[in-house]
Amino acid sequence: MDKNILELKNISYSYHSLHGETRALDRITFGVREGEFVAVVGPSGCGKSTLLSIIAGLLPAEEGTILVNNPDGSLRYPRVGYMLQREHLFEWRSIYKNVILGLEINHMLTPDRLEYVNSLLRDYDLEKFKDKRPSELSGGMKQRAALIRTLALQPQLLLLDEPFSALDYQTRLMVSADICHLIRRTGKTVILITHDLSEAVSLADRIIVLSGRPATVKREIPIHLTLQDDSPLAARNAPEFNEYFNQLWEEMKS
Ligand code: ADP
Ligand code: MG
Fold first, then answer.
1. How far apart are alpha carbons 143 and 159 in whole angstroms?
2. Ligand 1: which of 50, 191, 194, 217 to mutate, most ligand atoms within 8 Å of CB?
């Protein structure tokens, strides 16, 4: 857990258009350790999604580098799984056909991968729903299906861009706790983007606080909660919870 598998060094990015330049990221530097759950918080429009797109390799950084240190010494970039705000399930496909979509597109429909998908459907209580259409499932079940579709490709690094923000508050509490519990069980390295401070404190091992646009790293706050059990809902009752929350709130205000 103590070696950074990913190190971002001075990552900067600007969007260019006919109306001029929008600087989104300004020399972002931080590391991510293997198996760590990092939350990135920052005001709306500051550049969080841009940062995640760069980490995912969907956008090239204009300046700066991302270093990779795999535990086995190889320099291969970790396989990345990406989950977005909307679950983007296709209504014309069954849940099963949706969760194997990534495998299908990548020509990876091998028996062992399909067995892995089936085991996730069983574990996540979706087996009975695999022939249903997305609209027949609750918001939480759809997010679970989206998670299975992401995990099917066996990513080493999970990138979550505000994956719960389309849900109403109560559903969001339950689904974020549920999904994060499932993700924790996989032991994967996670970068979660959120603007919800409570969500960040209850889920993350460490929080990176970004400034307004262009995003710079304002602070890194390691989170240590005294917990009876490891559920994110219980985390909200931990004695340190409010202290972290207020610390973040002050950072975001200033
Ligand atoms: P966040 O995810 O923190 O809300 P984004 O990374 O989506 O922020 O966007 C950062 C800034 O860059 C915003 O001001 C946004 O308007 C601008 N931006 C995002 N995408 C584009 C684009 N494709 N072209 C021009 N500007 C963009
Ligand atoms: Mg965004």
1. 14
2. 50
